Fold each of these.
Amino acid sequence: MVDPRVYQAMTKTVVSHLDPYFFQVVEDCRVLLRQAFGTTNEFTLAMSGTGSAGMQTAIANFVERGSKLAVLANGFFCDRMTEMGKRQGASVVRLEKPWGEAFDEDDVASFLRRERPRVLAFVQAETSTGVYQNSKTICAAAHEVGALVIADCVTSLGTMPVNVDENGIDVAYSCTQKGLSCPPGLSPVTVSPRAMAWLKSRKTTPADWYLDLKLLADYYEGAHRYHHTAPISLFYAMREGLLCIHEEGLQNRWARHKAAHEAFVAGIEAMGLPMLVSPGSRLTSLNTPRVPEGVDDLKVRKSLLAATDMEILGGFGPLAGKVFRVGIMGPLATEEHVLALLAGLEKALAGEGFAPKASGVDAAREIYCAPRLR
Amino acid sequence: MVDPRVYQAMTKTVVSHLDPYFFQVVEDCRVLLRQAFGTTNEFTLAMSGTGSAGMQTAIANFVERGSKLAVLANGFFCDRMTEMGKRQGASVVRLEKPWGEAFDEDDVASFLRRERPRVLAFVQAETSTGVYQNSKTICAAAHEVGALVIADCVTSLGTMPVNVDENGIDVAYSCTQKGLSCPPGLSPVTVSPRAMAWLKSRKTTPADWYLDLKLLADYYEGAHRYHHTAPISLFYAMREGLLCIHEEGLQNRWARHKAAHEAFVAGIEAMGLPMLVSPGSRLTSLNTPRVPEGVDDLKVRKSLLAATDMEILGGFGPLAGKVFRVGIMGPLATEEHVLALLAGLEKALAGEGFAPKASGVDAAREIYCAPRLR
């Protein structure tokens, strides 16, 4: 859901991509993006493409032909990183986990010491499974063997702490249409000084001109040398979306998402639907309850949509038909919405012959009430 | 200049990138883009990036490592094509012309028969010089030697005939922020059946995943298999911009641009500023009068901007300080605007000590009046 303020920002007159006003908007975005990413990285920017353009930016700039890329593979977007790494001519090694499980950090550290890759790529917030990956130990182990760390933060930015600096992530990318609650079209990227130093000394030229970070640094920073015509209106939108977050306060926003997540989980578990992901590894923005045995998830989702206009997604790949994917983020991470969603789900499940153990709405309401009453 | 209708279209609620409504919007865009490009190509679409992403789409999909790319080099964007070709690992051969001159079609045909490249790339509408390149003979010669033809139509689409099919262009790309008068952020691309057949038989995988046309065809056509999250709001904007063009009528729109161009040229020549480009090779959307001897073009442009809020650009590369670049397109290609622009320019030039030979405004008005009076 996009705030009306953000839509309105897009009606502002388009200026030139070299206009000082545009660079002022960009500078505001940079300051606010650093806060959301949890970083002091000077190079914090947005690519002129959607989230997957951010992924390609990370891989095309930091993975050289013939170098070794290690991927932590436990979901759809790790597979996409693998594919992009191969296309850049890297030799890709993978540590595998079933979809829905997080990696043990020490296991990854051993893997890294064994493989000694040039770059490690992992997904902090896996949209296909709902898994959050802790990474402080992982990043330290990667740095020990001289590897740079790329993290996919598409579903964490703006909804929960990304902690780029605290974790030691070198290159993080995200999107605008999830936690930032803006229209899609830009991909925020942040790069550590260590990674920028490596990039400046990179011997080969990346095949990718459009997403070449050295050229983009010349455009957005200092000289403002023309590179491409940035999508001005989307920058207006992103600045407004980031301002909404700034006004709410990052801590408040994260707490609001956490509360909505905890209430939803309490409700869904009370109904008798266990969560796919273990506590402690769950995203707060994207929930993946298991589909009850014998229930057709597509029918449930369709009847929910028809009755309430609320859309939830199904699993795919190995999780097809096995989980619901329920995004609760941005303006929708509220008590009112969570209760309405649980009520709608209860009805839709009942329509498919599933009798809930207890009222999900009551259990969720309890979670919201508890801190106020006790 | 963007029509208020187009800004308003961006306030429409964002739907999912897999929503049937979105694909309906895309389908409308495809139909309208085919008309503007002058093609019946089934594969006519927009890339989720700005104009240079369109250029990279053409080069990354159709230029293979080790293959020979021929570039017609007479401006800034031909150099960019050369750079992208090299990054894809092609061997690049160039036919050179001074900036501001069009190529003789027969010369190019000889060059092609000599070089026998895999792909020929040229710029139909060169934004850095104002040159329009005729290409029917060129494309035929390229096909004779088995080459595909890529054409940069960034500044022609929506302002003058692109004639993709009539010329025999295989891959054409453009942008949204020039002739389509929309905000920047998408890059319309059209691909001939001949080029699509070649792409389907291509043995190597392009390094570029984000702009991979085979994957994009799977997303936008038939199966609607998820690829990336398209920038929905920009598609709403582009559809509205294309509808404005459709309602005006393409022929009318081209005639309006031609009239504005001819009036501007009459005015500027009356004042004593010769055009850089020969008649017959001029874009109607972008005019490049020479800066008079001894006049500082930057001072003229700054005082014009300060006095009238009208911004014109300077030349760059070998044309720095030598030409003005005056875009007259979209809602601004009108008599009222052309006369106001010439009046403003006359004052700004006078401020720098240049005395016009005759009134540019009068000469331009004459051009607009003539067809009505006689």
Note: Chain A has a mean pLDDT of 96.
Amino acid sequence: MAKIRLYTPGPTPVPEQVLLDMAQPMDHHRTKQYQDLLAEATNGLKYVLRTQNDVLTFTSSGTGAMEGAIVCCAQPGRKALVVSGGKFGERWGLVCQAFGIEHTILDVEWGRGVEPTMIEQHLKNDPKIGMVIVVHCETSTAAASDIEAIGKIVAKTDALLLIDAISSAGGMPIKTDEWKLDIVVTGSQKALMLPPGLAFAAVSEKAWKVIDANKPKAFYFDYRAYRKAIKKNDAPYTPALTLVRGLHRSLQMIQQEGIENVWKRTETLAKASRAAFVAMGLKIYATNPADSVTAVCVPEGLDEAQLRKTLRSDYGVHLAGGQGELTGKVFRITHMGYIDVVDTLGALGAIEAVLIRMGHKLTPGAGLAAAQKVLVKQ
Amino acid sequence: MAKIRLYTPGPTPVPEQVLLDMAQPMDHHRTKQYQDLLAEATNGLKYVLRTQNDVLTFTSSGTGAMEGAIVCCAQPGRKALVVSGGKFGERWGLVCQAFGIEHTILDVEWGRGVEPTMIEQHLKNDPKIGMVIVVHCETSTAAASDIEAIGKIVAKTDALLLIDAISSAGGMPIKTDEWKLDIVVTGSQKALMLPPGLAFAAVSEKAWKVIDANKPKAFYFDYRAYRKAIKKNDAPYTPALTLVRGLHRSLQMIQQEGIENVWKRTETLAKASRAAFVAMGLKIYATNPADSVTAVCVPEGLDEAQLRKTLRSDYGVHLAGGQGELTGKVFRITHMGYIDVVDTLGALGAIEAVLIRMGHKLTPGAGLAAAQKVLVKQ
């Protein structure tokens, strides 16, 4: 029996009821039925992101919506401050580079969140900074930044704050309006429990003012076209409507559970997992660990690729490896989305078993017991 | 019983077996299984497009892949010749405008294909033209252009030929290599029998040379990143993997039928439908009609929106209306994709019945008989 379970930080498992909703017969998107469905989905996204701002839906990966945000918000004569502490922070710097957007990279040690005061300092020293780009949960290192504190700092200036919340939104607390986040981008294949193919952006009034004055050099990712369309529950270009139908369903599930409960569940699973890995004698890579995903250092001499390969072939447990400079050094396991206690305990047990088989010294059940201690306390 | 059937030129109906393939449990895209599946799908796309060129897969609507083609092929100091005879030709002009790409619009009367000699003349008179953008089937008017003849003309120059084949590829003959088409773009939700969300581009060596020399100001739609990834059966950004799984299945179906047979089926249904509409006393809008979709003029005094509304509510037949200046003046019916004789005769009969009910004078069965005459001849 091959029962594959995804524990990768995107794609994540998709609930069966969502898969079947997407398999319903095709209908057209210029119908009242679809428009009502999109309206409800958009409201669901606002609920998840805790915002009254416009929320736009793109047919693309999260990278596309982030590119759109960066290009649309890049003001002539101003520059971007790009916080980079992993592969995705690096990517937003590359987007600036590709489009000739002047930018400063604020390098953060991999595994750490950015110090909010560092951003404050940059904004003080360089009034040319017109936007600050921060990754909430850096998927490659599983480190989180304090976007609430950063929001307070940037809100005092005329700069915009762009948040890559692709692997955090819906899994970790984000209060877009309260924290004054100007653009929050996320994707479908993470905490929103959908296949990849959709990306979303919540856009503040402060951001719209800049975008409207900018007249950005963009077409497919021109945020203005999506704002105009969403007001009529439409999209400027044919939308990935089966995925939107799935979104409608998965957001219903999130609303039924309650977003605070989803955040709490994710946090609990993350805490239990971290405790388990420490009890197995492993090190958590991030000093500021995110709750949506954990990166775990693989002990010296242990073959990380082999570990993951055996987990998949013998237990159906699909973990993610390391990215970039972390290849072979860490594995990553997700806690966000359609993942519960049973999934988590099962995966932790499988990891323990394979570690033992590969010669790593640990008492069988030590990791599981540590996880259980955290879980029963909740 | 509400049995909705799409006859819109995108989205089109998706076969049940494709819908269910896409509803299989989620797996990861960095697995041998997925890479093999993508490799097979890419080969299937090459088969459909009759090409040995690289074929790239994007998570976006067709518009996104066209934007990428235009931006990647726009050489500094050169300009674009944009053939515009409908809403989509207009759109590619707007893309040039958005990105500040110098361009000439070659205006073609709506409903006509472009005269290939007009393109020849432009290329002779203006050596600055570095790319020619032509819509194969202009979805808004259902008119086709002779891209084989245009291919021969452009191939003699150093200009690139970019074809929007979004609503033609897989439904009408396209021989990318034989006709020397440099970039052929299509989308998933037309003749390929999939939901919207994927776009594809076949790219010639001549185009790659330009793109590589260009170093385009693009990121998400930078064709170079997709070429690099596809060589390893990968994508640069998380792909819409459930749609790719569906693509794999729908391409299998096309290969089983044989692409020449698919073209022939589409052509036959188009011919039968046109004969039927003429027999109903209606006029075909395009003087150079495409075979993937037909635009039909609605008689003076007949409420086009009401016609379509009744067809959907009473017969489950969903036609498309007119776009832009054709709103209220034409309806459109598709012949491409998962559409057969039974679907077509059923829709033609329903249209006849509603026309009669709305006071249009015609002998009941006249349209159906005319269609049948064409069908039995094949």
Note: The mean pLDDT of chain B is 97.
